[in-house]
Automatic annotation (TrEMBL), chain A:
Keywords for the protein's UniProt record, in alphabetical order: Cell membrane, Membrane, Transmembrane, Transmembrane helix, Transport
InterPro entries named in the record: BPD_transp_1_N, MetI-like, MetI-like_sf
Pfam families with a match to the protein in the record: BPD_transp_1, BPD_transp_1_N
Intracellular or extracellular location(s): Cell membrane
TM helices/strands, residue ranges: 9-30, 100-122, 129-152, 172-191, 226-248, 278-298
GO cellular component: plasma membrane
Name of the protein this chain belongs to: ABC transporter permease
Topological type in the membrane: Multi-pass membrane protein
Family the entry assigns: Belongs to the binding-protein-dependent transport system permease family.
Main localization (coarse): membrane
SUPFAM superfamilies the record matches: MetI-like (SSF161098)
Gene Ontology process terms (BP): transmembrane transport
Organism, scientific name: Bacillus yapensis
Domain of life: Bacteria
TrEMBL record, chain B:
Name assigned to this protein: ABC transporter ATP-binding protein
PROSITE patterns named in the record: ABC_TRANSPORTER_1, ABC_TRANSPORTER_2
Keyword terms of this UniProt record: ATP-binding, Cell membrane, Membrane, Nucleotide-binding, Transport
GO cellular component, one term: plasma membrane
Annotated ranges, domain ABC transporter: 5-256
Coiled coil: none
Record organism: Bacillus yapensis
A GO molecular function held by the record: ATP hydrolysis activity
Pfam families linked: ABC_tran, oligo_HPY
Subcellular location: Cell membrane
Membrane-topology descriptor: Peripheral membrane protein
Family matches, as InterPro entries: AAA+_ATPase, ABC_Ni/Peptide_Import, ABC_transporter-like_ATP-bd, ABC_transporter-like_CS, Oligopep_ABC_C, P-loop_NTPase
Amino acid sequence: MATYLIKRFFAMIVTLWLIITLTFFLMHALPGSPFNDERNTSEAVQKNLIAHFNLDQPVSVQYIEYLKSIVQFDFGPSIKKSSQTVNDLLGRGFPVSFELGMVTLVVAIISGILLGIVAALKHNGVIDYLAMTIAVLGISVPNFVLATMLIQQVAVNWELLPVATWKSWKHMVLPTLALATGPMAIIARLTRSSMLEVLTQDYILTAKAKGLTPFKIVFKHALKNALLPVVTVLGALAAGILTGTFVIEKIFAIPGMGKYFVDSINNRDYPVIMGTTIFYSALLIFLLFLVDVAYGILDPRIKLHKKEGR
Amino acid sequence: MEKILQVKNLHVSFRTYGGEVKAVRGVTFDLHKGETIAIVGESGCGKSVTAKSIMGLIPNPPGKITDGKILFKGKDLAKLPDRELRKIRGADISMIFQDPMTALNPTLTIGEQIMEGIIQHHKIARSNARKKALEILELVGIPSPKSRLKQYPHQFSGGMRQRIVIALALICEPEVMIADEPTTALDVTIQAQILDLFRDIQKKTGVSIILITHDLGVVAQVADRVAVMYGGKIIETGTKREIFYEPQHPYTKGLLNSVPRIDIEDAELVPIAGTPPDLFAPPAGCPFVARCGYAMEVCDRIYPTQTLKGNEHQVYCWLQDARAKTSFATKR
């Protein structure tokens, strides 16, 4: 296991390095500079600014310099938001985005799995059709449409919940709902189909023949096997939720990272683009790693490390 | 001998889009304490359905016990609600399935799978359950059971897995064990070992066994009594000797003739021509009539009455009737 973890760690570093390199050169390939729309700056000031941020040097030199600072976890200063470093921005925005993302993920997983199980157990019944209708709607309605509809209905018309911003749990309900519905629908459909398959397996009959209660048969014998395909898509879903937060944060005026990320690209705020990209990539790589570990825990036939003797 | 389980006039049907399949049509047999009864017949004759009905494992819908009784300890299992049946399943009557490669849950340790039955039924502590599981694994012949308890099914061979399946059927010390083709998925040498194990277990625990099989070799090795099923009915039953040495029903004879023999040189393998009857619309008379070389007109119309050939030996065939002269029998 230890050797696997070490190997995996190096693979993660290499992946991250590739992402950094690609993003860095793509970013510099973009036409324009951070100071394009600075009005009323004389040529001399512009030159000074460019020199200040080392942008006058060749890209390859900048790249090396950037890697050096990255290794020390220093993402540099923001060009646009003077007197703030990228580390500051991340430190402020990330906890909020993380909270939204994690709550969404947990809500999506739990409700999706439960919905899927109920649908599978009541196969071809009214509840099944109802659950799957909700699922299809959840998949086909984009989260920003759902978000605006929720704001209009729940917050404006019924005045049940606040319209926007991020303060108490009440503020979390609508953005979480908007963001979680899509992934929940995907998880529910997957759980249902894989549960239906597992329930016809011989070992379920064995469990029944033992006289186990239906609850134990479903949650102990069937669910663990049925979850494998669900876990597989969790990595991709997590990525979807992360990028989904950009849009949702904008709609609900949530002070998360998404805002900085979008703004930074519009402004060509190089250090912020790099910083947020690296941060999100690292998070995603780590989530994918967790998925692999979860796979090994769920299914003992999958070995994460080299075979040991029987 | 004490009758531990009585199946009386059992009827089981399945509702499908094509209509109602009458899979079991009036099966009656008794199981005595400590004996092994073999139910033999070809695919689709209703033997597995009979076994699953006893356990209440017929998926409902589409399956349903439409008539008959299954008497066990003064209770009619055919009418018991699932909640009550659950207490009997695994505890008093247990079942072994055909394919050990798929009958065990791949994601749980075999220790967990063996222990959960006894924890469910006897409400004992895990440590005691573990002790019991070790004993049972010893009984079914798993070497070094202590370390094996923590392993997963994929770490065992097919024969070993079948021993584990037997172990989890035995853990609650049931009075009846139903084995549905327990050796079909195993190769011949392992088959012999498993059958030896059955006899050994029966000697040690006194469990009564219902053995479902299509393999007459298996029957010859372990059964005390044999019931031959065809088209959802038992057409002949008797002791092992009676069935093997004095088969009366043409189908039983046909079955015995279609067993490959190595003891007789140039022995001809005689298959039974034709296919089993359509159970959507089962024949009014003998289900075997279409394939029987001795079929008479009456066979087509009326189901044969029971003829007693010995104390236990019963056969349902018009050829046994005094009125049936061989000259009468119009060969087809």
